Amino acid sequence: MSPMAGKVRVAIDAMGGDFAPDEVIKGAVMVARKGDVDIILVGREDVIQKHLEKQGAPPDLVRVVHAAEVIREGEPPAHAIRQKRQSSIVVGVKLVRSGDADAFVSAGSSGAVASAAATYLGMVQGIERPTIGGGFSSFAPNVVVMDLGANVDCKPHQLVSFAIAGTVYARTIYGIDNPTVGLLSTGSEEGKGNELAKEAFPLLKNSGLNFVGNVEGNDILMGKANVIVCDGFVGNVLLKFYESIGDRARVWLMGKYPSIKGLVSFLFDRLVPIKKLSYEGEEEGSGILWGVDGVVRIAHGACRAEHIVHGVVAAQKAVQVDIVGNLKKEIAYLTEQGRLDKGG
Amino acid sequence: MSVEEQVRDIVSRIAHVDKSIITREATFKEMKADSLDIVQALVAVEETFDIEIPDEEAQKFRNFGDFVDFVEKEAAKKG
After folding, report:
1. A147 preceded by cis ω (within 30°)?
2. Has the ipTM of the complex gone over 0.90?
């Protein structure tokens, strides 16, 4: 944190996202105006300055760090971060590494952010690959799912590292002392599921974590476990299905009961906005990239200004509760207990 | 420690592969290193030896031995 003001310094990728730079800079200005976090905008300086003027931002409201290049969606991530070393993603991650920022938030290419973070910040010892986790806050306020899409093909021991990260998440962000861990599968008994689930089960059972066994899809929103572990392929499908529930419920109700259209519209559009049915507050629009040696938050490509605000506030909290330090402590403890193998 | 040993250490740590598998003839595929492992290893080697490994050169590496030869040559230039 900034030694002078004691504020958390969050670098934001001004060029990343479907609606960048407009929405990103708008969000950055909104959160900077609150005054409790120092904002660093990373990207093409001329473009950023133009948008700051458009937002009516006073000259000293945010700091700008120039990055001449932009990594686009669709570029092979690992290749792009070496080809474009002056990109907003690489420069932003390096600000965290150099200690000039405490956290980095980007709505740019998720793969490039994860690759840049793993490469330039390094991985926490015991974790092989970065993982994106997040909560399903409205319907299941104390549940976190890992992985939500960073690793579509996983090895069994990687699921253990997701479980560790999820445990630290539930403890530090939700304040749950001894979070329960469930392995997402197609049946509750041991031995159910695909090869990955079958092989991961005994590893989780012997991990020293509070493992409660397999959980099924219908157990997630019931809160049967605080940490739901799955590979990123399943997690990402689950996430997008969950995100669509609110809107689909609105459309379905309007078609099924046309006579109460007005009531449905009032309920879903004004009283309980659709997004609130799936996400609330800080959980909305972005997730922490776990396992890298620094605080990085990846936002949805289609995020808007308010999601950038949520992402920055959540990144600030992650720095304040020292999620990276807590993750290291958890791994050190489990390693000391002889619970973890070399793969994590 | 020789350049070859240092590079082997880096690759072993990043790709989570036993050093005994990383012979001069071993390919990245044989080491089960994916694209992120390779990029992480390239950047770590660049930073360790303060050299640059252009992508067009990296693409020519047929095995670990080619990688080490290039690093030795570049590191020697640095003195």
Report:
1. yes
2. no
